[in-house]
């Protein structure tokens, strides 16, 4: 990933949340504390989901190097083959959706297939 393709910094994102909340407050001047809390939660859950996605996609350097090594089948020990990247959709505790991209691996010997956890 080059510098230009980097996602917005977390500082920028928290500023965006702050701005979104100020805007929300302007349009909800009569909001109760509970309503404010829900609106803040909604913003924070979105931010949280993006952070989970990004952290999950960030591999430590030693792990990135390890991914170039052939993956062994946990069933028969044969060499696994990459079947291309697949997307997994997961729900976070905040009810937001997180999409993870993983190289799907399958074994030509016994047919076992799995998504590596990282
Ligand atoms: Zn196998």
Indicate the percent of residues in helices.
Answer: 40-55%
Head-to-tail CA distance between termini = 18 Å
| Main structural class | alpha+beta
Radius of gyration: 20 Å
Count of DSSP strands: 3
Bound molecules: zinc ion
Shape: elongated
Mean pLDDT across the residues is 83
Which oligomeric form is depicted? Answer: single chain
Instruction: Outline the low-pLDDT stretches.
Output: none
Count of spatially separate domains: 2
Q: Helix count?
A: 3
Largest sheet: 3 strands, antiparallel
The SSE order reads HHHEEE
- In percent, how much strand structure appears in the residues? 15-25%
Please state how the strands of the largest beta sheet are arranged side by side.
1-2-3
List key phrases describing it.
118 residues; alpha+beta; 2 domains; three-stranded antiparallel β-sheet; 3 strands; 42% helix; binds zinc ion
What this model shows, in words?
- The protein has 118 residues and is an alpha+beta fold.
- It has two domains: 8-58; 70-118.
- It is built from three helices and three strands.
- It has helices spanning 10-27, 33-57, 61-66, and strands at 81-91, 97-106, 113-114.
- A three-stranded antiparallel β-sheet has the order 1-2-3, with helices on one face.
- Strand 1 and strand 2 form a beta hairpin.
- Helix 1 packs antiparallel against helix 2 (33-57).
- It is elongated.
- The two termini are 18 Å apart.
- The model has no long low-confidence stretch (mean pLDDT 83).
- The site of zinc ion has 8 residues, from loops.
């Amino acid at each position: 990933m080059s510098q230009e393709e980097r996602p917005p910094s977390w500082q920028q994102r928290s500023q965006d949340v702050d701005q979104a909340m100020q805007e929300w407050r302007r349009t909800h001047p009569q909001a109760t504390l509970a309503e404010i809390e829900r609106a803040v939660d909604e913003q924070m859950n979105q931010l949280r989901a993006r952070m989970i996605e990004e952290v999950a996609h960030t591999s430590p350097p030693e792990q990135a190097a390890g991914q170039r090594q052939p993956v062994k089948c946990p069933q028969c020990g044969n060499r696994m083959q990459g079947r291309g990247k697949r997307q997994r959709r997961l729900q976070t505790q905040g009810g937001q959706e997180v999409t993870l991209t993983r190289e799907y691996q399958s074994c030509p010997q016994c047919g076992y297939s799995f998504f590596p956890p990282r």
